TrEMBL record, chain A:
Domain of life: Bacteria
InterPro entries with a match to the protein in the record: 2Fe-2S-bd, 2Fe-2S-bd_dom_sf, 2Fe-2S_ferredoxin-like_sf, 2Fe-2S_ferredoxin-type, Aldehyde_Oxdr_Iron-Sulfur, Beta-grasp_dom_sf
Pfam families named among the record's database cross-references: Fer2 (PF00111), Fer2_2 (PF01799)
Classification of source organism: Bacteria, Bacillati, Actinomycetota, Actinomycetes, Kitasatosporales
Domain 2Fe-2S ferredoxin-type: 2-79
Name of protein: (2Fe-2S)-binding protein
Source organism of the structure: Streptomyces shaanxiensis
TrEMBL record, chain B:
Domain Aldehyde oxidase/xanthine dehydrogenase a/b hammerhead: residue ranges: 227-306
Signal peptide per UniProt: none
Superkingdom of source: Bacteria
Record-given protein name: Molybdopterin cofactor-binding domain-containing protein
Record-linked PANTHER family: ALDEHYDE DEHYDROGENASE, BLL3820 PROTEIN
Length: 158, 766
């Protein structure tokens, strides 16, 4: 079976698995990392959103063979370490605004939020209403309003 | 509720109840989970002998904690409580912890609330539905906590050698007001334990003394949620429970005739097992990705489904035929006549149907989010030919429900597959299956006629006709579940639910609202708020029309006809806070609506923008359409245990109401639903979220809480529909509003039944 190596939450991991298995299943079913959730497997609902080299992506839509040994994959479990603290400021904002209801989509929502803020800053601005409107993550509990509030507040923390 | 103490005097007795101290090595207390208070959501109970016979009584009477909920105090100073309900996002673990914190005088963070396994001895007292959890557990949980507090105080008095009256309990510590000596609950937990089980009378706190109940608290599971540590059914580690998926038919409930390539698919990478089951062909493998590939590779010949050739048009005609007649019309009165159509909708949660099952020769163990776990346990036992006691059902945290988790579709299927394979399985439905083969909110029509003369509404008649709603989950226990399945039984059950939930809050003379159901070929179930959003939407649109014909303002018209002061108060509140009647540009408008249910009232004011520049706004890969720009909601649930949690429930209900009015429906064509992803089924997304949203929690109007989980859906649906009608000048009659448009998406194929996952994820990274 082919071997695939990449960096997961700061540590190099190697898995034996067929080339075309999507990364979401490598994370969840092989490595036991269950923060990224399954909501569609179609790159639509964004529940599995994680980061690759700092950018938001859907592991459900990436065959494991596309990863290089130097690629850094960060799931919600590894997000706090990227800022060297117990919680990322965006997670703190999520707590402050008591965003979660069932919580199933929230790891993906937070990973998207962090990437959106970064993306806006790279364009030399802070996150705007139009940016928030573009977020595709489904929340079936309908916590959208608190997500918007938490992102704006969270962005001010760092 | 706890049994009232017959010895107590009138006045005090309203708050005096009996609880229990249970024999255990650490302080364990209990209270009976009540029968009386659940009545509103548990209609038409069969006689006691039907649901609980002598044999059961003899068995369960032997259990020291039969029909009791218990709280345990540990030496680390924490209290633990296993809630016999399902947490699927409503926040009931938090509100239950608040009730304990209040009566026990223990900080919220020291209270652990978990979800109880299926407990058949609780009978119909382990169902999560009808927005009933807080109504039915409000008193029992507080009684148990108060027993614990009393017991700790007594233990402290003995330990410190001081009179009980000199001791006070605060934040988990008992202090002597005389000597200043103190003991923590942790230090007292073992000393307060009892060798025997016995009854204790307690007095609950006066509402005026509440320090926790009625205050806004954050969820106790929030940290778990934001760190990804919260464990849902698919995150539970069960040895050897490998990913399992089912290849399902192309039409609703089709059956397997023949599989051409079982051996070839079994040999695919990662696949360990493949078996035919009642719902299709099950595959088990190392990863779900490999299961998806295997499902797609299967060559199956399918038999017809239960609704072959059915379409939205054929069902609409069928509903028309099943409609109950309206009373004759007096030719001298004027009338508003309308017929509304509500298309099929999906109650699919973000977590698809899923369960872990480990079925052995003589036992079975199930892990799933279940709102009716006793029915699941008993039906699975029946299916497997095992005694109920050999089937253990663990209730996991749920990733949303919206009615789905009243049923145990995945748990039953997982048990069948695990037995057939002889191995543990981790069964998950694919998203596309969850929309196409999963349960739905049935299509319905509402025919309304209201007559009016001389400034009065004389009659209001509503005939709601619906594809049958499956209430096969009963009220939480298999015998009532079976009764709901009898041909006559469930008609009565549906009609009873309808009658007990639908109201006309206005003084409209002689008012009738009747339900007629037809067609049992579909997989249906209660969707959040069941009949109310559709019935209420139709009524409020007719109210707007009546106001228009009678030359009245919609708000003032409602106000003058409302029966109840609490209803008028929430309506006035949104009119004021939402600046009802403010001047707005053409193509935009306000709508206002009211909904009474669950001993509670909600009013919603919505502002919608239907101008072309808004409906045609461009957002990448988004379905946009009219946008609700602002919502103001006022809610009176009597007593709000956690106002913050209540606000969250209102917000969620409003997002549901917006979706079912504007955009989220299923299209039925040739015996199957076209929608297969969240980019087909347009539940509210960020681009359709109102930029402005205000939720006002009214001050307490009663001493007991009403229900909140579903309340806002009907009010929001009606307000958005009314706003749309006023913005466009035409009363909408078909929902969702976009249903008659050409499809806004390219339907996924039905064969293979599920799509392959994309491979371009890296190109779309941002």
């Amino acid at each position: 079976m082919p071997e695939h190596t990449f960096i997961l939450n700061g540590e190099s991991v190697t898995v034996d698995i067929e080339d075309d298995v999507r990364l979401l299943w490598v994370l969840r079913d092989v490595l036991g990392v269950t923060g990224p959730k399954y909501g569609c497997g179609l790159g639509v609902c964004q529940a599995c959103t994680s980061h690759i080299n700092g950018k938001a992506f859907n592991p459900c839509s990436v065959p494991v063979k596309d990863l290089r040994p130097t690629d850094e994959v960060t799931t919600i479990e590894g997000l706090p370490a990227t800022v060297g603290s117990e919680l990322h400021p965006m997670q703190e904002a999520w707590l402050e605004y008591d965003v979660a209801q069932c919580g199933y989509c929230q790891p993906g929502q937070i990973m998207t939020a962090v990437a959106k803020v970064r993306q806006a800053r790279e364009e030399g601005r802070e996150i705007s209403e139009a940016d928030l409107d573009e977020i595709r993550n489904v929340c079936r509990c309908g916590t959208y309003h608190r997500i918007r509030e938490a992102i704006v507040a969270g962005a001010k923390k760092y | 509720m706890g049994a009232k103490d017959p010895l107590s005097t009138e006045g005090v007795s309203r708050r005096r109840f009996l609880g229990y101290v249970v024999a255990a090595s650490t302080l364990t207390v209990a209270a009976p989970l009540g029968e009386g208070e659940a009545a509103a959501a548990v209609p038409s109970l069969p006689g006691p002998a039907e649901i609980y016979d002598l044999n059961d009584m003899l068995t369960h009477a032997a259990l020291p904690t039969a029909n009791l909920i218990t709280i345990r105090l540990d030496s680390d100073g924490t209290a633990s409580f296993a809630l016999p309900r399902a947490e699927v996002g409503q926040g009931i673990t938090t509100s239950s912890a608040m009730l304990i914190a209040e009566e026990l005088d223990l900080p919220l963070e020291k209270i652990h609330v978990t979800l109880a396994d299926a407990r058949p001895e609780l009978l119909f007292n382990q169902i999560t539905g009808g927005s009933n959890t807080t109504i039915s557990t409000y008193t029992p949980i507080r009684v148990a906590a108060a027993v614990a507090r009393g017991r700790l105080l007594k233990a402290a008095a003995l330990e410190l050698g001081e009179a009980l009256g000199t001791l006070t309990a605060k934040a988990g510590v008992i202090v002597s007001t005389v000597t200043g000596k103190s003991l923590t609950y942790g230090e007292l937990a073992a000393k307060a334990a009892s060798m025997t089980t016995g009854q204790v009378a307690v007095t609950l706190k006066e509402p005026a003394d509440f320090k926790v109940i009625g205050t806004a608290r954050r969820r106790i599971d929030a940290l778990e949620a934001v760190t990804g540590r919260k464990k849902f059914a698919m995150d539970v580690r069960v040895p050897d429970a490998l990913p399992t998926m089912v290849c399902r038919p192309p039409t609703i409930n089709g059956t397997v005739r023949e599989v051409a390539n079982l051996d070839a698919v079994r040999a695919m990478p990662g696949i360990t097992d493949i078996v035919r089951v009642s719902s299709g062909v099950a595959v088990r493998g190392r990863t779900f990705g490999q299961c998806i590939d295997a499902v797609r590779a299967l060559e199956v010949t399918w038999g017809p489904g239960t609704a072959e050739d059915a379409s939205d048009e054929s069902i609409r005609a069928e509903l028309r035929r099943a409609e109950l007649p309206l009373p004759g019309l007096d030719l001298l009165t004027k009338s508003v006549d309308a017929r509304f159509t509500f298309h099929f909708a999906s109650n699919s949660a973000l977590e698809t149907n899923c369960a872990v099952a480990d079925v052995r020769e003589d036992s079975a163990e199930i892990w799933a989010s279940l709102k009716s776990p006793i029915v699941a346990q008993e039906e699975i036992a029946l299916r497997l030919g095992l005694p109920v006691s050999a089937v253990k059902v663990h209730v996991t945290e749920g990733g949303g429900s919206f009615g789905r988790k009243l049923f145990h579709d995945a748990a039953g299927e997982a048990a069948e597959i695990s037995r057939a394979m002889g191995k543990p399985v981790r069964l998950m439905w694919h998203r596309t299956d969850d929309f196409r083969q999963g349960r739905t909110h049935p299509m319905s029509t509402s025919r309304v006629r209201a007559t009016y003369a001389l400034g009065q509404v004389l009659t209001y008649d509503q005939r709601h006709t619906s594809v049958a709603t499956d209430f096969g989950h009963g009220v939480g226990e298999i015998i009532t579940a079976e009764a709901a399945r009898l041909p006559v039984g469930d008609l009565t059950f549906s009609e009873t639910i309808f009658t007990l939930t639908q109201q006309t809050p206005y003084r409209f003379g002689v008012a009738t609202q009747l339900l007629s159901e037809t067609d049992k070929r579909f997989n249906t179930g209660s969707m959040r708020n069941i009949y109310s959003p559709n019935v209420r939407c139709a009524q409020e649109l007719v109210v707007d029309e009546l106001a228009k014909r009678m030359g009245k303002d919609p708000y003032q018209f409602r106000r003058s006809f409302l029966k109840d002061e609490r209803a008028r108060a929430v309506l006035d509140k949104v009119a004021e806070a939402g600046e009802w009647g403010r001047s707005m540009p053409a193509g935009t408008a306000q709508g206002i609506a009211l909904h009474p249910e669950y001993h509670a009232y909600v009013a919603v004011l919505a502002e919608i923008d239907c101008r072309p520049e808004t409906t045609g706004r461009e957002i990448p890969d988004a379905y946009t359409g009219p946008r609700v720009m602002k919502v103001v909601c006022a809610v009176d649930v009597g007593l709000a245990v956690n106002p913050r949690g209540l606000q969250a429930q209102m917000m969620g209900g409003i997002m549901d109401g917006i979706a079912i009015t504007l955009s989220s429906g299923l299209h039925l064509t040739d015996g199957h639903f076209q929608e297969g992803s969240w980019d087909n089924y347009f539940y509210t997304r960020q681009w359709n979220t109102p930029p402005e949203l205000e939720i006002i929690v009214m001050p307490p109007t009663t001493e007991t809480p009403g229900g909140a989980g579903e309340l806002a859906v009907a009010g929001a649906m009606a307000a958005v529909a009314c706003a749309y009608g006023r913005a466009t000048g035409k009363m909408p009659t078909t929902f969702p509003l976009n249903h008659a448009d050409p499809l806004h998406f390219e339907p996924l194929p039905t064969s293979p039944p599920i799509p392959a996952s994309p491979v371009d994820g890296l190109n779309r990274a941002f």
